[in-house]
Design a protein that fits this description.
The structure holds two protein chains of two kinds. Chain A is an alpha/beta fold. Chain A is built from seven helices and five strands. In chain A, a hairpin with a 5-residue loop joins strand 2 (59-66) and strand 3 (72-78). In chain A, helix 2 crosses helix 6 (147-163). Chain B is an alpha/beta fold. Classes of the chains: A alpha/beta, B alpha/beta. Chains A and B meet through helix 1, strand 1, strand 4, helix 7 and strand 5 of A and helix 1, strand 1 and helix 3 of B. Chain B: Its main location: membrane.
Chain lengths: 208, 186
């Protein structure tokens, strides 16, 4: 009698295709990755249904939110290394602080900051991780010492010199921030005849 | 996991010496595991979504008050929205002394202010059409009080974008009556 042999089914699956896909995706994510840096001043943005995105270059972001001590603080950030370098140079000249080439290089790679120009050097000298931890007091923007205005002026000039373009300004405000603070920032912008700017918002569902 | 699936059917019968066929397959399980782990890591650490932004254009501001000309608009076309404390929202149509509608408290969102804005927008268009100027739409005046938050303002601007109202103004000035309405100290 011929025995009926049961064919043994192999339990392993062919992983080749899966492996291919996985590595393709991996490559894609590695190449498109820009490491997310923790913000020095975390803000909870209000959400909107607007679909337009922020531009990548020639952009300055004014972040306004409450610090740990409950006071409103203003942080400033410029995109673009060359513009940052030139802005720092201009601010140094204006406030009589000298920044070395090394400082400028470091500043170009930094993110947002919120200190008066005089103590900016200490922030530049810090390591990225320490900057977030450091309690930055915010950029002064009252009528006595309006450094935010100077930052805006200098960075706009730098953008025009380098890229021959007008700098775009975006306001990134905390949702709980009260209107008068936002109004103050808008007034500073309007004093410089910047009448059109962006408000950074989060995303909201379509069925809102 | 074994993966000897070269099939052993139809092999040699009898006492022939079989040279065992070497499987050409490599176990990829571990590799795939690793790959997916890394994918997950990169997906989570990548900021995939760029922040969105809302364009806002304000009118020219002139410090010289003599240059600021008051523009007269038909009060039948204006809707005033007062953003108050604790997400309070009050609106009225026309002049506060002789309002067409309101003043009334209303909620933010789909069933509140949006419905009202859309309704008023339609009625203003009908009104303008009867005057022979069908292009004159509604004018919304947004009045944020000192206690209103940035979220309130953005929500209201968002409503304007959703409802398709393109004439709106942000006016943080209050007449005594409006201040009373918004619960502000006068």
């Amino acid at each position: 009698m011929a025995k009926i042999k049961m064919k043994k089914k192999s339990t392993s699956t062919d992983m080749t295709a899966m492996c291919d896909v996985a590595f393709l995706l991996l490559t894609f994510f590695i190449l498109t990755a820009t490491a997310k840096v923790p913000e020095a001043l975390p803000v909870d943005m209000p959400s909107s249904t607007v679909q337009s995105k922020l531009p990548d270059s020639d952009l300055a972001i004014i972040t306004i939110g409450k610090g740990k001590d409950g006071k409103s603080k203003v942080f400033f950030d410029i995109k673009g290394r060359e513009i940052r370098k030139k802005t720092l140079e201009g601010m140094g000249a204006k406030f009589g602080v000298t920044f070395s080439e090394e400082d400028k290089e470091k500043f170009a790679l930094m993110d947002d900051f919120g200190v008066p120009v005089t103590s900016l050097k200490q922030i530049i000298d810090m390591k990225a991780a320490d900057r977030v931890k450091a309690e930055q007091p915010g950029i002064p923007f009252d009528s006595i010492d309006n450094q935010l205005k100077e930052w805006l002026l200098v960075s706009r000039r730098a953008t025009i010199d380098l890229d021959d373009k007008e700098l775009q300004i975006a306001i990134k405000g905390d949702a709980k921030e009260e209107y008068p603070q936002i109004k103050k920032i808008m007034d500073i912008l309007q004093d410089q005849k910047i009448n059109s700017f962006n408000l950074v918002t989060g995303m909201r569902g379509k069925d809102f | 996991m074994a993966e000897l699936n070269t099939g052993d059917g139809g092999g040699g019968k009898g006492g022939k010496v079989r040279s065992k066929k070497q499987s050409s397959k490599v176990d990829l399980t571990a590799m795939v595991d690793l790959a997916f782990l890394l994918i997950t890591f990169f997906m989570l650490t990548t900021s995939l979504s760029k922040p969105q932004s809302m364009d806002l254009s304000l009118p020219d501001k002139d410090d010289d008050p003599t240059k600021n000309k008051d523009i007269k608009v038909d009060e039948n076309r204006t809707m005033t929205v007062i953003l108050g404390e604790n997400n309070k929202l009050t609106y009225y149509m026309g002049l506060l002394s002789s309002p067409i509608a309101g003043p009334k408290d209303i909620a933010y969102g789909k069933d509140g202010i949006r419905r009202e804005v859309l309704k008023r927008k339609k009625s203003v268009l009908e009104y303008s059409a009867s005057l022979g100027k069908p292009k004159n739409g509604i004018i919304v005046i947004i009045k944020p009080t000192k206690k209103s938050t940035y979220r309130n303002l953005v929500d209201m601007l968002d409503e304007m974008a959703i409802a398709g109202v393109d004439t709106y103004a942000i006016v943080p000035e209050f007449s005594p009556e409006e201040a009373k309405l918004a619960g502000l100290p006068q």
